[in-house]
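Re: the multi-chain job from yesterday

Posting the exact lines I submitted so nobody has to dig through the queue logs.
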Amino acid sequence: MHISEEINKRKTFGIISHPDAGKTTLTEKLLLFGGAIQVAGAVKNNKIKRTATSDFMEIEKQRGISVATSVMTFEYGGKLINILDTPGHKDFAEDTYRTLTAVDSVILVIDAANGVEEQTEKLMEVCRMRDIPVLIFVNKLDREGKDAFDLLDELEEKLDIKVRPLAWPIGIGADFKGVYNIHKQELNLFDSNKTEIEKDIVKITDINDQQIDDILGSQGEVLRSDLELIEGVYDDFEPEEYEKAQIAPVFFGSALYNFGVQELLESFIELAPSPLSRPTNQGDIEPEREDFSGFIFKIHANLDPNHRNRLAFLRVCSGTFKRNTFYKHVRAGKNFKFSNPYTFMAQSKLVVEEAFPGDVVGLYDTGNFKIGDTLTDGKEFMFKGIPSFSPELFREVQNQDPMKTKQLEKGLLQLTEEGVAQLFIRQPGNVKILGTVGDLQFEVIQYRLKHEYGASCNFKGLPFHKATWITTDNQEQLNDFLRIKSRNIVQDKDDNWVFLAESPFLLDMARRDYPDLVFHTTSEFKVTAE
Ligand code: G4P
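And the result, structure tokens for all chains:
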């Protein structure tokens, strides 16, 4: 098969949501359609439940399971679909942000009762930053929830994106009758006793068809006036606008009852982009190029503490990746070949001979890779767009066992390379400060330092609110700032200057007092320059 056929066949995407909106349930139902799993419940085990936060072994076990489900590949409608799993737990949000660098589109799940929640807004910010096309699934229509028009307004307002319903719910909760597929002019009837794939679909050619009233009673008239309102208020849906991330089509359903999921999947296949080009320091790399290239977006620790192997996840960006072939690790300037690269079909790992753009390959790593690293067939370019985001919690690392200082340093370095947290250094004294988005990471780090490296440490809370990366052309102003604010100045893993502000007010003040300094909230300045 020609490479462009392989590319067109693939859809690589992520499902994102605020915890509990139904991401896991929807993922599972999509896999059922693809025949990748036989029974519901298989993906569920992968969830890190909040109750498990104090049980580290449990976390580790969960992390182990999630290796197998980090990428879920299945075929549907002649397409090869790669779902990149994103952790639901908010403390692992940074993992999710990074995974979004490796997808070509996203399905955003919203709980019809809760509407747009905090985590949804943050995730959407990342999608907007990277112009990722988003398709929205409003879930849990079998339960009481917000009015559909109010929900659409809320989506537009809080997520800062134009929306366009392509399906419309008929009633909600106890009155939920089904969904009208605006695009296909089909009425899909809901039956809470049926959760299997087949369901009652009535094809309607004319919205005034008497059949609608026969089936829906007075809700038929409501449907007609709703549809009229939609046509009046919302612009026609243009697929190109969706691809440019300017509009998000909206679907409604109930993942639990497997309702509206097939419509979502079929529309997704029709609309979602195939593997797209990726930016590098030498311009965009098109997937159709002959030469192989890819980047590491995730690193997973091995569960066995005796073998500190890790699994690095590579997104193939161009050309064909081949087993047992030397590729260049551009940052390290060394060549590597991989004898057991994995893909993830039907929830099991399989050794692959070849992989194509859009595919994710798991590579065994003994500590050579960092998140963001590029592999090529020898070329020198490096992929961009894998930023660190500002952490929200900061703690100073206090060594509890001076005999194990080396182990502690090594452990901190490796764990932060894996992306568990960000490491900042403050001088003088080489003070190590960890930044995370959730409390859980500190517990995980402490546990893993002890069990994998034999090092023990405590954490001292620091009152910082945000990390901002500083750039400027005005060296004099920078020197001045570094001197005056020395207690708030640290350096990241690449020696960039970072300002830790105690509050939004103090950050604003710094911006005002030092107008030539630019304070960025992610480490990748070009994408988010403020
Ligand atoms: P998440 O991955 O986004 O965190 O959410 P998940 O799919 O785990 O769903 C969270 C809860 O919401 C689960 O209930 C799930 O069964 C329920 N749920 C998901 N989709 C629907 C839906 O369409 N309708 C209704 N009524 N419920 C839905 P739970 O009680 O927390 O978990 P479980 O005990 O059922 O596993």
